[in-house]
Amino acid sequence: MNYKLPDLLYDYDYLEPFFDKQTMEIHHTKHHQTYVSNTNLALEKLYEFSGLDINLLIQKIDEVPFNQYNYIRNNVGGHFNHTVFFKGLKLGTKLKNNLKDAINRDFGSFENFKELFEKTAISCFGSGWIWLILKNTNKLDVVSTHNQDNPLMRNISSEIRGYPIICLDVWEHAYYLKFQNRRSEYVKSFWFTVNWDEANKRFESKVINKI
């Protein structure tokens, strides 16, 4: 089974003025596509992994042979992370229902959560990802991962393991054309684009059926 670049559910200019058309198109058709292509190439001779759903494959990365481990980890992670990121973008949705209640419960308020998320994103050194995750304790947390790691990988620190609810790409390619070195402006623009409907769906799927 070859992985395919998922279609976006919107046009590349859909998120303007928050995220610009040129960045979105390059980000999707070049960066994400490269991770998909490299994943398929790497798995051609690893038959025991090539047929796995991407969600399962990302959790079995630690079983990949040592000589191909880093290459596959980076590319499978890149494919998975970008898939969650792009699907998690939409205009005009609102935080509500059980996810809203859980954020208020675990962070004290949405403003507290937002402040922590922004602080984590702005202070992330180098390239990586910022996540709102649901831990196996059914508690929410904000964590960051470097490069193309993500919280579903079994061999990362237990402190950052969990099920992704929302994520933000803080690699420079995600924002540099519009925001240059002003990552904080990019992070603040993110709140206008969060697909809370998708986030709530992901939350509900795991808060009932525990991780």
TrEMBL record:
<feature type="binding site">
    <location>
        <position position="173"/>
    </location>
    <ligand>
        <name>Mn(2+)</name>
    </ligand>
</feature>
<dbReference type="GO" id="GO:0046872">
    <property type="term" value="F:metal ion binding"/>
</dbReference>
<dbReference type="InterPro" id="IPR019832">
    <property type="entry name" value="Mn/Fe_SOD_C"/>
</dbReference>
<feature type="domain" description="Manganese/iron superoxide dismutase N-terminal">
    <location>
        <begin position="2"/>
        <end position="89"/>
    </location>
</feature>
<feature type="binding site">
    <location>
        <position position="169"/>
    </location>
    <ligand>
        <name>Mn(2+)</name>
    </ligand>
</feature>
<dbReference type="InterPro" id="IPR036314">
    <property type="entry name" value="SOD_C_sf"/>
</dbReference>
<dbReference type="Pfam" id="PF02777">
    <property type="entry name" value="Sod_Fe_C"/>
</dbReference>
<feature type="binding site">
    <location>
        <position position="82"/>
    </location>
    <ligand>
        <name>Mn(2+)</name>
    </ligand>
</feature>
<dbReference type="Pfam" id="PF00081">
    <property type="entry name" value="Sod_Fe_N"/>
</dbReference>
<dbReference type="InterPro" id="IPR001189">
    <property type="entry name" value="Mn/Fe_SOD"/>
</dbReference>
<feature type="binding site">
    <location>
        <position position="27"/>
    </location>
    <ligand>
        <name>Mn(2+)</name>
    </ligand>
</feature>
<dbReference type="InterPro" id="IPR019833">
    <property type="entry name" value="Mn/Fe_SOD_BS"/>
</dbReference>
<comment type="function">
    <text>Destroys radicals which are normally produced within the cells and which are toxic to biological systems.</text>
</comment>
<dbReference type="InterPro" id="IPR019831">
    <property type="entry name" value="Mn/Fe_SOD_N"/>
</dbReference>
<keyword id="KW-0560">Oxidoreductase</keyword>
<protein>
    <recommendedName>
        <fullName>Superoxide dismutase</fullName>
        <ecNumber>1.15.1.1</ecNumber>
    </recommendedName>
</protein>
<dbReference type="GO" id="GO:0005737">
    <property type="term" value="C:cytoplasm"/>
</dbReference>
<comment type="similarity">
    <text>Belongs to the iron/manganese superoxide dismutase family.</text>
</comment>
<dbReference type="InterPro" id="IPR036324">
    <property type="entry name" value="Mn/Fe_SOD_N_sf"/>
</dbReference>
<comment type="function">
    <text>Destroys superoxide anion radicals which are normally produced within the cells and which are toxic to biological systems.</text>
</comment>
<feature type="domain" description="Manganese/iron superoxide dismutase C-terminal">
    <location>
        <begin position="97"/>
        <end position="202"/>
    </location>
</feature>
<keyword id="KW-0479">Metal-binding</keyword>
<dbReference type="GO" id="GO:0004784">
    <property type="term" value="F:superoxide dismutase activity"/>
</dbReference>
